[in-house]
Amino acid sequence: MKGVLKRITLLGSVSGRNAGDVALIASIMSEIRNLHPEGTFEIPTINPAFIKKHYSHLVARPVSMLPWHLSVKMLGLPTFLSVRRADMVLVFDAVLFDRKLFNPLFNHMSALALLIPYAKKHGKLVAYYNVGVGPVYTSLGKKILASISNQADLITVRDEDSLNLLREVGVTRLSIHVTADAALNNQPAPPERVQEIMKEQGIFSDRRWIGMNVNTYVDTWVRSGEKGISRRNFQNTMAQVADSVMDDLDVDIVFFATQVMDIPLFQAIIQEVKKKERVRLVTNRDYTNHEIMGLLGQMELFVGMRLHSLILASAMYTPIVGLVYLPKVRSYLKEIGQPDQGLEFADFNARRLVSLIESTWERRELIRQQVERVGRLKEESRKAARLVVELLRQRDSG
């Protein structure tokens, strides 16, 4: 297949506002191009300028999904035309869920229910690239998930729970490959750049630092009939946790905002922290995903809510504590052999979280030594690129 140009359309979450998604896209394209340098990419996005600025070296062309191009997020004419031009459609990230199923501003699965059959009708290959699947609660959501997944030519998922859910809803293809999240192979910024940022932010090397990440979706994903957490109570609790941990462990705190929309929540939490002088805020509005990843490697411990904040931290072999607001966080902790390092939202309060952080702090060096599983997952993640290129070769030889 060497020398044969192949065009791949990437369908997933591509706003440029989430450091985890940015890391994911970069890793996917880099790994495919390492095996097939002639590959090119089209990326439907609401932020074309971001794609041009950050991914031009990977031969990535943005496809605007802005409203004046006849789009409502992924559902629109530009995406259908991109699929029509492609040799392969690659679905990535955790976009296979049924929350707000028919709201195209929030949910992509209903759009995929139209795009994937369209791709197959026009003879395009369809692959899932290390996807996270779920949650899917409704009968219609399960039916759609089974239908589009059974049309895929290749499925790789990032965890066993995703595999189990696909089987549960009726995906019958014989081979579903369990790999790992592509963002594990994101590259951190060089050490000298990390040191520059630490100096800029006043993150002093003679102090010990714990990183923390939260998510604006405090109760968005809570199912009907279950107890949610109000934003006000959540920010008050996180401020209490930060103050307690700083007192009890004699550490300082770096809050990491990996999604621009979360920054106001971080600012509100910091306003309630008593020891504000011992707190820093690092955001992906100011720093790249590579720089944030490098900084995460300087933390003694990281407490995260957004999945990819946890993935980027553990990829740097930093011990983690997960706030389990969605099953995908629980699944990741299981995949790295640390199922007890999560606090379920049903059990969320300041006392329990402080207790888990402090017990993890005492065991952090042991935990750091035990996370060799992360190294194996990095290699598992790379399998997806090999399978994609192999599928393209088979199409050529056929």
UniProtKB/TrEMBL annotation:
InterPro entries: Polysacch_pyruvyl_Trfase (IPR007345)
Keyword DNA repair applies: no
Gene3D superfamilies from the UniProt entry: Glycogen Phosphorylase B
Ranges that cross the membrane: 307-326
Record keywords, A-Z: Membrane, Transmembrane, Transmembrane helix
Annotated Polysaccharide pyruvyl transferase domain residues: 18-325
The protein's name: Polysaccharide pyruvyl transferase domain-containing protein
Native source organism of the sequence: Candidatus Hakubella thermalkaliphila
